[in-house]
């Protein structure tokens, strides 16, 4: 769905077209849920927050500014809802552990075979390994690789300098590689040959320079 197609659907949804509203939800539902799942580590929380995010978006759709990307607005709302939820759930959740000490924080597959999203098993392995990253590293890795957001958009979304985003991305990928390499039970579940993790890291290091506009 390109920007113009999305605009037509949004305008139709604002006018009361339920089919258009449903199309809008279906287009973004998977990526929003996956983002919330990987940030919270809880399928139940991710599902609840995704539903609430879409309710908020549809309720306030007439306020959407078409100068900006709809996905950016949607993910900002979803992230805020998750942060508020985690704060209410203390001490069961530690928001600092999820979003960092200062509360900072398309469906693209992550990094070739290692991040192939075709199977539930592979998704679960990556979800486990992501929990070994710091909050900022995890969020940057998810936004960059899973959602295919460019560096500039991530920096704007998280209110970070682009250099800081690149640093979190580089260190996050390194820690993810180390987490997988140190946990053979995870690798065995993926049936990966020895050296795949190293190949992943080398291949991904070349992608950190992506800084252009986000895909429509």
Radius of gyration: 17 Å
The whole-number mean of residue pLDDT values reads 74
| Total strands | 0
The DSSP helix count reads 11
Unreliable stretches covering 5 or more consecutive residues: 91-119, 191-209, 212-216
CATH class of the largest domain: Mainly Alpha
Kindly identify the CATH topology of the largest domain: Arc Repressor Mutant, subunit A
Instruction: Please identify, by name, the CATH architecture of the largest domain.
Output: Orthogonal Bundle
Distance between the termini: 7 Å
| Share in β-strands | under 5%
Number of domains: 2
User: Main beta sheet, described?
Assistant: none
What is the helix content? 55-70%
Order of helices and strands: HHHHHHHHHHH
CATH superfamily of the largest domain: Winged helix-like DNA-binding domain superfamily/Winged helix DNA-binding domain
What structural class do helix, strand and pairing data support?
mainly alpha
Question: What overall geometry do the principal axes of the alpha carbons give?
Answer: globular
């Amino acid at each position: 769905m390109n920007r113009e197609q999305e605009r037509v659907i949004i305008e139709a949804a604002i006018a009361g077209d339920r089919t258009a509203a449903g199309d809008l939800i279906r287009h973004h539902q998977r990526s929003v849920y996956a983002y919330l799942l990987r940030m919270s580590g809880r399928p139940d929380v991710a599902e609840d927050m995704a539903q609430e995010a879409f309710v908020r978006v549809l309720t306030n759709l007439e306020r959407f500014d078409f100068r900006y990307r709809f996905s950016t607005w949607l993910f900002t709302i979803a992230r805020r809802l998750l942060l508020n939820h985690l704060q209410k759930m203390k001490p069961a959740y530690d928001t600092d552990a999820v979003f960092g000490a200062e509360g900072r924080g398309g469906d693209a597959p992550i990094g070739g075979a290692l991040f192939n999203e075709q199977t539930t098993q592979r998704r679960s392995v990556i979800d486990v390994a992501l929990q070994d990253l710091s909050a900022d590293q995890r969020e940057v890795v998810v936004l960059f690789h899973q959602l295919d957001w460019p560096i500039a958009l991530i920096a704007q979304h998280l209110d970070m300098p682009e250099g800081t985003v690149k640093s979190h991305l580089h260190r996050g990928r390194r820690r993810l590689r180390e987490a997988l390499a140190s946990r053979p039970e995870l690798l065995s579940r993926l049936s990966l040959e020895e050296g795949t993790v190293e190949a992943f890291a080398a291949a991904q290091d070349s992608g950190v320079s992506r800084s252009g506009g986000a895909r429509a």
